[in-house]
């Protein structure tokens, strides 16, 4: 473990050049991707009104936590995983880092699979290959996964400038595509028809399940919040802009996925939640080859960020591993993970299992970090101690076992509450688990460590 001054973890005010507009655009862009469309399609199983209610409630509450983590990044200049050293211990922070590696590899796989579906549709249109689900249809999806994985490796291997270029071009094309898809949808069916549509009983999704689904999707960004906000000089840019940008992005893009999925169900006379992905929607709406190419590009824009986050977290666990090597490792792992839905036979089933995992492991981590900073340490950390062996954040051999025990119990509580029929039908298990985890951590810390470790930065 490093003995160097902890200030090196922190971005100095002179190095902070991210404007409020950049921060807003970053978080709108974070949700301008395939996965957000797909979430909207999955929520169609609630019906339009319930889906929009859940989307607004669960997203807004999730992004309050994004703002809280964002402020810590602004105040300290330290990344989220760097901040977690104060609550989990210097070595204990490897746990949230490892979870960040797995969840961002998972999101990379989700976006890759959705884009691979687009590649398979392209090959069907261009070369007449059978679609996935038909005899011989695996060829197209396997080709798609390999093509997308190569594109992702190119995007991260070319450095941050090419990634930035991909992001800027991608976002413009995505906005155009979303407006185009919206026009096509509302030419096909009216908003009144969409609002009046009823979900077939066998596909109906409970409200609590939907809240947990949306929460898992949104909380995944919270653990990367400070990574961005530490580069801004203004408090509002670190708190208001991430909240507003991420909320606008998720509501806008999930809304498109929602109405497009319902419109296809109305037009075709049958609803299939497995057809909620953008490629199937684009194909059934007759949007053509260009739409599929845009979906492929959005996978590259989203996954450049996902792979960078996974690679950075891996480097935090193995400091001797250079970032470039970490990026290659996570890119290769993500390729293998992308094949899991093919093995399970259903992308939707694999996606729901993944979201359950994200909700179970991330909620308690976020609660612990927030409670530790705001309530235990009254909004201030000793930055010089964040890399210091035997310092105040060293705890027991570098691990704060109170945080570990709280996290394990929080994951267990989530698993139990998720199977409660009352919560399944009402508000879900995620936010209640986060509240319980925060309370447990606060009082266990008070019991074992007494006062705070507050000091001046």
Automatic annotation (TrEMBL):
Location(s), subcellular: Membrane
Top-level taxon of origin: Bacteria
GO molecular function: cytosine transmembrane transporter activity
Regions annotated as coiled coil: none
Membrane protein topology class: Multi-pass membrane protein
An annotated GO cellular component: plasma membrane
Bilayer-crossing regions: 37-57, 63-83, 104-124, 136-157, 169-189, 240-267, 287-313, 325-344, 350-371, 392-415, 427-444
Listed Gene3D superfamilies: Hydantoin permease
Keyword Transport belongs to the record: yes
Record bears the keyword Nuclease: no
Protein's recorded name: Purine-cytosine permease
Native source species: Liquorilactobacillus capillatus DSM 19910
